[in-house]
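Consider the record:
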Amino acid sequence: RWEQLPLPPAEAQSLHWSPAGLIAGTNRGVFRWLAAGRRWAAVRDGPAGAVYALASPHAQGREVYAATARGLYWSRDGGRRWQRMRAAPAPLYRVLARPGGWVWAAGRGVVLRSDDHGRRFLPGQLSLDGRHGPLGAIQQLAAAALPGGGRLLLAATTTGLYRSRDQGAHWQRCGHGQPAMAISRVHVEADAMYALGTQVGDVYRSRDQGVSWRAVRLPLRLETLARSVPGLGMHWAAAQPAGAVTAVPLRHLSRPK
């Protein structure tokens, strides 16, 4: 069941929910949803200006990172108070966090990595030149657990999908079925990962940690894929251009083109 909330006073770029409540990253900073008053309130002690992405190392966790026009910010109380991580460059457009202090942040065509909550950053080898969109070449960062331990990082970019098996120190372009095209989103499930292109029906699936990909057919254009709903065997997808939230059965993502 869905509940309609009023829109934040500024354009929302990202949302995050934790036991501390719902927060929105917008083009005018961070806003918190005050359920008792059913209104949004600006976070004064937080990022100013555009907040492009929010990420937490834990599902529904109080620890939150924000990629902003002024760099990286870190909150440990669900977004009430924020600390600017001054080692990070600006602007940053994407951020990914995992337990243990690991943070990856993307600027204009480059991915940076940190193992100490963003206090110190090391560059990875993924650096994309050429034409970038208004938010840079890197559209999304994601992570998947590898069999036997370890982590696979994925970067959806305007020139294709890239993967790293060493915490982002080295990257290689995914191939074997994944075409040279812009990838807008990547979504990871326990048994497969999915990449979304920018054209109608451009959906690709990999069952071998991104080594090879196969196109699947869908009757609509997807904006994003969210986690499958437990027990229902489906992914939730935002379909375009209608903008409706549509339930896409998992079997539809298994049909080859």
